[in-house]
Amino acid sequence: MTSLPLISVDPDARGRRPSMPPRHLADLDLSGRQALVTELGEPAFRAKQVSNHYFGRLVRDPERMTDLPAATRERLAGELLPTLLTPVRELACDDGATRKALWRLHDGSLVESVLMGYPDRVTVCISSQAGCGMACPFCATGQAGLTRNLSTAEIVDQAVYLAGVAASGAVSGSPPRLSHVVFMGMGEPLANYSRVVAAIRRLVAPAPEGLGLSQRHITVSTVGLVPAIRRLASEDLSVTLALSLHAPDDELRDELVPVNQRWKVSEVLDAAWDYAATTGRRVSIEYAMIKDVNDQPWRADLLGRLLAGKLAHVNLIPLNPTPGSRWDASPKPVEREFVRRLRDAGVSTTVRDTRGREIDGACGQLAAAGDTDGDSRAATA
Predict the structure, then answer these.
(1) What is the DSSP letter of 204?
(2) How far apart are CA 270 and CA 292, in angstroms?
Protein backbone atom coordinates (compact mmCIF):
# COMPACT_ATOMS: atom_id res chain seq x y z
CA MET A 1 0.00 0.00 0.00
CA THR A 2 1.22 3.51 -0.82
CA SER A 3 2.31 5.50 2.22
CA LEU A 4 0.08 8.30 3.44
CA PRO A 5 1.09 11.67 1.94
CA LEU A 6 1.99 14.65 4.05
CA ILE A 7 -0.72 17.32 4.26
CA SER A 8 1.30 20.11 5.89
CA VAL A 9 3.48 21.15 2.98
CA ASP A 10 5.00 24.55 3.69
CA PRO A 11 8.53 23.55 4.88
CA ASP A 12 10.71 21.28 2.77
CA ALA A 13 11.82 17.83 3.85
CA ARG A 14 14.60 19.27 6.04
CA GLY A 15 12.29 21.70 7.80
CA ARG A 16 13.46 24.75 5.86
CA ARG A 17 10.87 27.11 4.44
CA PRO A 18 10.98 27.20 0.63
CA SER A 19 12.08 30.35 -1.14
CA MET A 20 8.99 32.29 -2.13
CA PRO A 21 8.93 34.72 -5.07
CA PRO A 22 9.07 38.51 -4.86
CA ARG A 23 5.89 40.32 -3.84
CA HIS A 24 3.55 41.03 -6.75
CA LEU A 25 0.41 43.14 -6.92
CA ALA A 26 -1.69 39.96 -7.28
CA ASP A 27 -0.52 38.96 -3.79
CA LEU A 28 -2.35 42.01 -2.40
CA ASP A 29 -5.88 43.33 -2.49
CA LEU A 30 -6.36 46.84 -3.87
CA SER A 31 -5.95 48.55 -0.50
CA GLY A 32 -2.71 46.64 0.06
CA ARG A 33 -1.43 47.78 -3.33
CA GLN A 34 -2.36 51.36 -2.52
CA ALA A 35 -0.46 51.17 0.77
CA LEU A 36 2.60 49.82 -1.03
CA VAL A 37 2.51 52.55 -3.68
CA THR A 38 2.23 55.17 -0.95
CA GLU A 39 5.30 53.69 0.75
CA LEU A 40 7.12 54.17 -2.55
CA GLY A 41 6.30 57.86 -2.46
CA GLU A 42 3.66 57.76 -5.17
CA PRO A 43 -0.01 58.77 -4.93
CA ALA A 44 -2.30 55.88 -4.02
CA PHE A 45 -4.24 56.06 -7.28
CA ARG A 46 -1.17 54.78 -9.14
CA ALA A 47 -1.95 51.33 -7.68
CA LYS A 48 -5.30 51.36 -9.44
CA GLN A 49 -3.67 52.42 -12.70
CA VAL A 50 -1.08 49.63 -12.65
CA SER A 51 -3.71 47.12 -11.54
CA ASN A 52 -5.95 48.10 -14.41
CA HIS A 53 -3.14 47.52 -16.88
CA TYR A 54 -2.44 44.07 -15.46
CA PHE A 55 -5.97 42.78 -14.84
CA GLY A 56 -8.03 44.93 -17.19
CA ARG A 57 -5.78 45.26 -20.24
CA LEU A 58 -3.56 42.19 -19.61
CA VAL A 59 -0.52 44.45 -20.03
CA ARG A 60 2.69 44.16 -18.00
CA ASP A 61 5.12 46.11 -20.22
CA PRO A 62 5.75 49.49 -18.53
CA GLU A 63 6.30 51.17 -21.91
CA ARG A 64 2.65 50.57 -22.72
CA MET A 65 1.45 52.16 -19.46
CA THR A 66 1.28 55.61 -20.99
CA ASP A 67 -1.04 57.02 -18.31
CA LEU A 68 1.85 56.73 -15.84
CA PRO A 69 4.60 59.37 -15.74
CA ALA A 70 7.53 58.12 -17.81
CA ALA A 71 9.91 58.68 -14.89
CA THR A 72 8.03 56.26 -12.63
CA ARG A 73 6.85 53.53 -15.01
CA GLU A 74 9.86 51.23 -14.68
CA ARG A 75 10.04 51.63 -10.90
CA LEU A 76 6.34 50.97 -10.32
CA ALA A 77 6.31 48.01 -12.68
CA GLY A 78 9.44 46.62 -11.03
CA GLU A 79 7.86 46.85 -7.58
CA LEU A 80 4.35 45.73 -8.49
CA LEU A 81 4.89 43.44 -11.49
CA PRO A 82 8.11 41.46 -10.97
CA THR A 83 8.57 38.52 -13.35
CA LEU A 84 7.14 35.40 -11.75
CA LEU A 85 6.79 33.01 -14.70
CA THR A 86 9.50 32.62 -17.32
CA PRO A 87 8.25 30.72 -20.39
CA VAL A 88 10.35 27.65 -21.15
CA ARG A 89 8.28 25.95 -23.80
CA GLU A 90 4.82 26.00 -25.30
CA LEU A 91 3.23 23.04 -27.07
CA ALA A 92 -0.01 23.05 -29.03
CA CYS A 93 -2.38 20.45 -30.45
CA ASP A 94 -6.01 20.18 -31.55
CA ASP A 95 -5.26 22.71 -34.33
CA GLY A 96 -4.03 25.18 -31.75
CA ALA A 97 -7.12 24.93 -29.53
CA THR A 98 -5.13 23.26 -26.72
CA ARG A 99 -1.90 24.88 -25.59
CA LYS A 100 0.36 23.75 -22.75
CA ALA A 101 2.83 26.18 -21.22
CA LEU A 102 5.88 25.12 -19.19
CA TRP A 103 7.09 27.83 -16.80
CA ARG A 104 10.26 28.26 -14.77
CA LEU A 105 9.74 30.00 -11.42
CA HIS A 106 12.23 32.28 -9.68
CA ASP A 107 13.85 29.38 -7.80
CA GLY A 108 14.10 27.09 -10.83
CA SER A 109 10.95 25.10 -10.03
CA LEU A 110 8.92 24.09 -13.07
CA VAL A 111 5.12 24.17 -13.39
CA GLU A 112 2.67 23.77 -16.23
CA SER A 113 -0.70 25.18 -17.21
CA VAL A 114 -3.03 24.40 -20.10
CA LEU A 115 -5.25 26.67 -22.20
CA MET A 116 -8.25 25.03 -23.88
CA GLY A 117 -10.41 26.78 -26.44
CA TYR A 118 -13.98 25.72 -27.25
CA PRO A 119 -16.57 27.35 -29.52
CA ASP A 120 -18.38 28.90 -26.54
CA ARG A 121 -15.64 29.40 -23.94
CA VAL A 122 -11.95 29.49 -23.12
CA THR A 123 -10.74 27.54 -20.09
CA VAL A 124 -7.37 27.56 -18.39
CA CYS A 125 -6.17 24.72 -16.16
CA ILE A 126 -3.73 26.13 -13.62
CA SER A 127 -1.29 24.73 -11.07
CA SER A 128 -1.34 25.55 -7.36
CA GLN A 129 1.86 23.72 -6.35
CA ALA A 130 5.16 22.80 -7.97
CA GLY A 131 4.70 19.04 -7.94
CA CYS A 132 2.22 17.32 -5.63
CA GLY A 133 2.46 15.54 -2.30
CA MET A 134 -0.67 13.38 -2.63
CA ALA A 135 1.20 10.43 -4.25
CA CYS A 136 -1.68 9.06 -6.35
CA PRO A 137 0.10 6.28 -8.26
CA PHE A 138 -1.69 6.77 -11.61
CA CYS A 139 -0.88 10.50 -11.81
CA ALA A 140 2.44 11.75 -13.22
CA THR A 141 2.35 14.87 -11.02
CA GLY A 142 1.74 12.85 -7.87
CA GLN A 143 4.60 10.52 -8.66
CA ALA A 144 6.98 13.47 -9.08
CA GLY A 145 6.54 14.54 -5.45
CA LEU A 146 6.11 18.01 -3.99
CA THR A 147 8.59 20.86 -4.40
CA ARG A 148 6.66 23.75 -2.84
CA ASN A 149 3.44 25.72 -2.73
CA LEU A 150 2.96 28.47 -5.28
CA SER A 151 2.33 32.01 -4.12
CA THR A 152 -1.03 33.66 -4.75
CA ALA A 153 0.47 35.72 -7.55
CA GLU A 154 2.19 32.73 -9.18
CA ILE A 155 -1.21 31.05 -9.36
CA VAL A 156 -3.01 34.15 -10.67
CA ASP A 157 -0.28 35.01 -13.16
CA GLN A 158 -0.83 31.75 -15.05
CA ALA A 159 -4.45 32.74 -15.69
CA VAL A 160 -3.61 36.36 -16.57
CA TYR A 161 -0.84 35.33 -18.96
CA LEU A 162 -3.04 32.82 -20.77
CA ALA A 163 -5.95 35.27 -20.78
CA GLY A 164 -3.60 37.46 -22.81
CA VAL A 165 -2.95 34.59 -25.19
CA ALA A 166 -6.69 34.16 -25.70
CA ALA A 167 -7.16 37.92 -26.16
CA SER A 168 -4.50 37.91 -28.88
CA GLY A 169 -6.70 35.68 -31.03
CA ALA A 170 -4.20 32.81 -30.90
CA VAL A 171 -6.97 30.29 -30.10
CA SER A 172 -8.93 30.26 -33.34
CA GLY A 173 -12.58 29.33 -33.26
CA SER A 174 -12.97 30.42 -29.62
CA PRO A 175 -14.04 33.65 -27.91
CA PRO A 176 -11.16 36.06 -27.26
CA ARG A 177 -11.82 36.24 -23.52
CA LEU A 178 -10.87 33.77 -20.82
CA SER A 179 -14.08 32.66 -19.10
CA HIS A 180 -13.31 29.55 -17.00
CA VAL A 181 -10.51 28.54 -14.62
CA VAL A 182 -10.04 25.05 -13.24
CA PHE A 183 -7.61 24.30 -10.41
CA MET A 184 -6.77 20.92 -11.91
CA GLY A 185 -3.14 21.44 -12.83
CA MET A 186 -0.16 20.43 -10.73
CA GLY A 187 -0.69 20.11 -7.00
CA GLU A 188 -3.51 19.63 -4.50
CA PRO A 189 -5.20 23.05 -4.29
CA LEU A 190 -6.58 22.59 -0.79
CA ALA A 191 -3.10 21.74 0.54
CA ASN A 192 -2.19 25.34 -0.39
CA TYR A 193 -5.44 26.61 1.02
CA SER A 194 -4.91 30.26 1.94
CA ARG A 195 -3.11 31.15 -1.26
CA VAL A 196 -5.60 29.32 -3.47
CA VAL A 197 -8.55 31.09 -1.84
CA ALA A 198 -6.76 34.44 -2.21
CA ALA A 199 -6.11 33.60 -5.87
CA ILE A 200 -9.80 32.82 -6.40
CA ARG A 201 -10.72 36.20 -4.92
CA ARG A 202 -8.34 37.92 -7.36
CA LEU A 203 -9.74 35.97 -10.29
CA VAL A 204 -13.36 36.87 -9.55
CA ALA A 205 -12.98 40.47 -8.37
CA PRO A 206 -13.73 43.02 -11.12
CA ALA A 207 -10.86 45.01 -12.61
CA PRO A 208 -8.82 46.75 -11.35
CA GLU A 209 -9.11 44.57 -8.22
CA GLY A 210 -8.96 41.36 -10.22
CA LEU A 211 -9.71 39.54 -13.47
CA GLY A 212 -13.51 39.73 -13.25
CA LEU A 213 -14.43 36.08 -13.84
CA SER A 214 -17.67 34.52 -12.61
CA GLN A 215 -17.35 32.52 -9.39
CA ARG A 216 -19.54 29.89 -11.00
CA HIS A 217 -16.90 29.46 -13.70
CA ILE A 218 -14.18 28.53 -11.21
CA THR A 219 -13.62 24.86 -10.30
CA VAL A 220 -11.43 23.70 -7.43
CA SER A 221 -10.31 20.09 -7.49
CA THR A 222 -9.34 18.08 -4.43
CA VAL A 223 -8.51 14.49 -3.54
CA GLY A 224 -10.59 14.95 -0.42
CA LEU A 225 -8.95 17.01 2.35
CA VAL A 226 -12.04 17.01 4.55
CA PRO A 227 -11.24 19.90 6.94
CA ALA A 228 -10.31 22.11 3.98
CA ILE A 229 -13.52 21.23 2.10
CA ARG A 230 -15.54 22.26 5.14
CA ARG A 231 -13.50 25.45 5.47
CA LEU A 232 -14.07 26.27 1.79
CA ALA A 233 -17.82 25.94 2.31
CA SER A 234 -17.63 28.83 4.82
CA GLU A 235 -15.81 31.23 2.47
CA ASP A 236 -18.98 32.66 0.88
CA LEU A 237 -17.78 31.55 -2.55
CA SER A 238 -19.90 29.76 -5.14
CA VAL A 239 -17.11 27.91 -6.92
CA THR A 240 -17.57 24.32 -8.08
CA LEU A 241 -15.98 21.61 -5.97
CA ALA A 242 -14.50 18.73 -7.98
CA LEU A 243 -13.82 15.67 -5.85
CA SER A 244 -11.27 13.21 -7.26
CA LEU A 245 -12.88 10.03 -5.97
CA HIS A 246 -11.63 7.32 -8.39
CA ALA A 247 -13.02 4.46 -6.27
CA PRO A 248 -16.25 4.00 -4.32
CA ASP A 249 -14.80 1.60 -1.75
CA ASP A 250 -12.16 2.26 0.88
CA GLU A 251 -10.04 -0.80 0.11
CA LEU A 252 -9.24 0.34 -3.42
CA ARG A 253 -9.28 4.09 -2.73
CA ASP A 254 -6.65 3.61 -0.01
CA GLU A 255 -4.34 2.52 -2.83
CA LEU A 256 -5.41 4.89 -5.62
CA VAL A 257 -5.79 8.01 -3.45
CA PRO A 258 -3.55 7.51 -0.39
CA VAL A 259 -5.13 10.38 1.56
CA ASN A 260 -8.13 8.04 1.89
CA GLN A 261 -6.15 6.36 4.65
CA ARG A 262 -6.86 9.49 6.69
CA TRP A 263 -10.38 10.43 5.50
CA LYS A 264 -12.51 7.55 4.25
CA VAL A 265 -15.00 7.63 1.39
CA SER A 266 -17.98 8.25 3.69
CA GLU A 267 -16.25 11.20 5.39
CA VAL A 268 -15.18 12.76 2.10
CA LEU A 269 -18.65 12.43 0.58
CA ASP A 270 -20.30 13.83 3.72
CA ALA A 271 -18.09 16.91 3.44
CA ALA A 272 -18.92 17.21 -0.26
CA TRP A 273 -22.68 17.01 0.39
CA ASP A 274 -22.36 19.66 3.10
CA TYR A 275 -20.48 21.85 0.61
CA ALA A 276 -23.30 21.38 -1.91
CA ALA A 277 -25.96 22.17 0.70
CA THR A 278 -24.15 25.33 1.83
CA THR A 279 -23.31 26.71 -1.61
CA GLY A 280 -26.10 25.29 -3.75
CA ARG A 281 -23.43 24.11 -6.19
CA ARG A 282 -23.45 20.65 -7.70
CA VAL A 283 -20.34 18.63 -6.79
CA SER A 284 -18.35 17.18 -9.67
CA ILE A 285 -17.18 13.63 -8.93
CA GLU A 286 -14.00 12.87 -10.90
CA TYR A 287 -13.41 9.19 -11.66
CA ALA A 288 -10.46 7.98 -13.76
CA MET A 289 -11.40 4.79 -15.59
CA ILE A 290 -8.57 2.27 -15.08
CA LYS A 291 -8.72 -1.08 -16.84
CA ASP A 292 -9.43 -4.01 -14.49
CA VAL A 293 -8.79 -1.80 -11.45
CA ASN A 294 -11.84 0.37 -10.73
CA ASP A 295 -14.11 -0.25 -13.73
CA GLN A 296 -16.02 -3.35 -12.60
CA PRO A 297 -19.84 -3.28 -12.89
CA TRP A 298 -20.23 -3.79 -9.15
CA ARG A 299 -18.19 -0.66 -8.49
CA ALA A 300 -20.41 1.29 -10.87
CA ASP A 301 -23.43 0.04 -8.93
CA LEU A 302 -21.84 0.94 -5.59
CA LEU A 303 -20.95 4.42 -6.85
CA GLY A 304 -24.51 4.83 -8.11
CA ARG A 305 -25.90 3.97 -4.67
CA LEU A 306 -23.54 6.44 -2.97
CA LEU A 307 -24.48 9.30 -5.31
CA ALA A 308 -28.18 8.65 -6.04
CA GLY A 309 -30.32 11.60 -5.05
CA LYS A 310 -27.32 13.82 -4.32
CA LEU A 311 -26.41 17.15 -5.93
CA ALA A 312 -23.61 15.58 -7.94
CA HIS A 313 -22.40 14.93 -11.46
CA VAL A 314 -19.89 12.24 -12.42
CA ASN A 315 -17.03 13.03 -14.80
CA LEU A 316 -15.57 9.75 -16.01
CA ILE A 317 -11.99 10.30 -17.20
CA PRO A 318 -10.39 7.82 -19.59
CA LEU A 319 -7.02 7.15 -17.96
CA ASN A 320 -4.33 9.12 -19.75
CA PRO A 321 -0.96 7.43 -20.40
CA THR A 322 1.97 8.42 -18.18
CA PRO A 323 5.58 7.21 -18.37
CA GLY A 324 6.17 3.93 -16.55
CA SER A 325 2.55 3.44 -15.57
CA ARG A 326 1.43 -0.17 -15.19
CA TRP A 327 -2.21 0.76 -15.84
CA ASP A 328 -4.25 1.36 -18.97
CA ALA A 329 -7.55 3.05 -19.78
CA SER A 330 -10.70 0.97 -19.61
CA PRO A 331 -11.93 -0.39 -22.98
CA LYS A 332 -14.78 1.63 -24.48
CA PRO A 333 -17.40 -1.12 -24.02
CA VAL A 334 -16.52 -1.30 -20.31
CA GLU A 335 -16.68 2.50 -20.07
CA ARG A 336 -20.10 2.56 -21.75
CA GLU A 337 -21.44 -0.08 -19.36
CA PHE A 338 -20.16 1.92 -16.39
CA VAL A 339 -21.95 5.01 -17.72
CA ARG A 340 -25.15 3.04 -18.29
CA ARG A 341 -25.23 1.69 -14.74
CA LEU A 342 -24.66 5.13 -13.22
CA ARG A 343 -27.37 6.71 -15.35
CA ASP A 344 -29.75 3.87 -14.53
CA ALA A 345 -29.15 4.77 -10.86
CA GLY A 346 -30.26 8.31 -11.64
CA VAL A 347 -26.76 9.81 -11.52
CA SER A 348 -25.86 12.46 -14.10
CA THR A 349 -22.73 11.18 -15.88
CA THR A 350 -20.50 12.29 -18.75
CA VAL A 351 -17.17 11.12 -20.14
CA ARG A 352 -14.56 13.88 -20.14
CA ASP A 353 -13.11 15.08 -23.42
CA THR A 354 -9.44 14.05 -23.25
CA ARG A 355 -7.91 17.21 -24.63
CA GLY A 356 -4.13 17.59 -24.82
CA ARG A 357 -3.01 13.94 -24.69
CA GLU A 358 -0.56 14.44 -27.56
CA ILE A 359 1.33 17.08 -25.57
CA ASP A 360 1.04 15.41 -22.14
CA GLY A 361 -1.41 18.13 -21.17
CA ALA A 362 -4.40 15.98 -20.22
CA CYS A 363 -5.60 15.06 -16.74
CA GLY A 364 -2.89 13.31 -14.73
CA GLN A 365 -0.13 13.98 -17.27
CA LEU A 366 1.35 17.27 -16.03
CA ALA A 367 4.83 16.61 -14.72
CA ALA A 368 6.75 19.75 -15.74
CA ALA A 369 9.29 17.70 -17.64
CA GLY A 370 11.30 19.24 -20.43
CA ASP A 371 13.94 21.82 -21.12
CA THR A 372 15.87 23.06 -18.10
CA ASP A 373 18.59 25.05 -19.84
CA GLY A 374 16.88 28.39 -19.52
CA ASP A 375 15.94 28.72 -23.19
CA SER A 376 12.57 30.27 -23.93
CA ARG A 377 11.06 28.96 -27.13
CA ALA A 378 7.83 27.71 -28.58
CA ALA A 379 7.13 24.42 -30.30
CA THR A 380 4.04 22.97 -31.89
CA ALA A 381 3.11 19.32 -31.66
Answers:
(1) H
(2) 28
C-alpha span between 126 and 140 (Å, rounded): 16
Q: Do 169 and 44 share a domain, yes or no?
A: no
Q: Are residues 217 and 293 in the same domain?
A: yes
Query: Sign (positive/negative) of CA torsion 87, 211, 317, 352?
Result: negative
pLDDT at 96: 83
**Alpha-carbon 312 to chain mean position:** 20
Model confidence at 369, in pLDDT bands (50, 70, 90)? low
Helix/strand/coil for 146 = strand
Indicate if 263 and 194 belong to the same structural domain: yes
Q: Are 77 and 65 in contact (CB under 8 A)?
A: yes
Q: Label residue 7 by pLDDT band (50, 70, 90).
A: very low
Instruction: Give the distance, in angstroms, between the CA of residue 210 and the centroid of all CA atoms in the same chain.
Output: 18
If you count them, how many residues does the chain have? Answer: 381
- DSSP assignment letter at 215: G
DSSP state letter for 347: -
Chain-wide mean pLDDT for the chain?
89
Q: Give the pLDDT score at 23.
A: 96
* 359 found inside a domain: yes
Q: What is the pLDDT of residues 249-291, one digit of tens each?
A: 999 999 999 999 999 999 999 999 999 999 999 999 999 999 9
Mean pLDDT value across residues 232-247: 97
Tally of domains in the chain: 2
What are the distances in angstroms from CA 4 to CA 133, 136, 154, 223, 377?
Answer: 10, 10, 28, 13, 38
pLDDT (0 to 100) of residue 365: 44
CA-angle at 127, arms to 121 and 133, nearest 5°: 145
Whether the predicted pLDDT of 238 surpasses 90? yes
- CB neighbours (10 Å) of residue 105? 21
Query: Are 117 and 76 found together in one domain?
Result: no
Domain that holds residue 250: 112-366
| Catalytic machinery residues | 112, 363
- Strands 180-183, 146-149: parallel, antiparallel or unpaired by DSSP? unpaired
Buried-exposed string 174-207: b where 16+ CB fall within 10 A, e elsewhere: beeebbbbbbbbbbbbbbbbebbbbbbbbbbbeb
| pLDDT given for residue 355 in this prediction | 55
CB atoms within 10 A of CB 365: 22
